Amino acid sequence: MKKGVHPEYRKVLFLDTSTGDEWTAYSTLSSSDTKAHEGEELTLLKVEISAKSHPFWTGQARSVDAEGRIDRFRRRYAKGKAAKKAAEPEVAAEAAPVEETAS
Fold first, then answer.
1. In whole numbers, what is the pLDDT of the chain averaged over residues?
2. Among candidate residues 53, 52, 50, 39, the one with its CA nearest the CA of residue 11
3. Interval 10-38 mean pLDDT
4. Rounded to an integer, what distance in angstroms lies between the CA atom of residue 34 and that of residue 99?
5. What is the distance in angstroms between the CA of the first residue and the CA of the last residue of the chain?
6. In Å, how far are 35, 40, 49, 75 from 20, measured between CA atoms?
């Protein structure tokens, strides 16, 4: 490999800020934070979410209720249909021919 072209690949310490879990891995990422881990001074990289805290991997994921979405859609657009239905009889009554009775 050419010198000075590739980023430094080193052992780093990852910290999941939501659960406090720590693990080591090799990475080219850098940070100014460091922390002693098992007798080594490692670069500390903080992550907000990992496999230990992500809802999908922890089994706490929400399931999407398709019927709830459909009901919400119907409620939202039912107002517009109700207004149209209320207006239609008036328009229909005005447009309908009036029957005259012979006296």
1. 79
2. 39
3. 91
4. 92
5. 109
6. 14, 19, 10, 43
Tell me how far CA of residue 34 lies from CA of 8, 27, 29, 52, 54, in angstroms: 16, 14, 13, 22, 25
**Nearest Cα residue to 24 out of 33, 57, 35:** 35
Q: What's the whole-number mean pLDDT along residues 32-49?
A: 91
Looking up tokens 């939501």 gives 18
pLDDT tens-digit profile of 61-78? Answer: 666 666 677 778 888 888
Q: Name the DSSP class of 96.
A: S
Residue boundaries of the structural domains of the chain:
1-61, 64-92
Q: Which residues make Cβ contacts (< 8 Å) with residue 74, sequence separation at least 6?
A: none
Tokens of 26: 């090799």
Mapped onto helix, strand or coil, the DSSP state of residue 86 is: helix
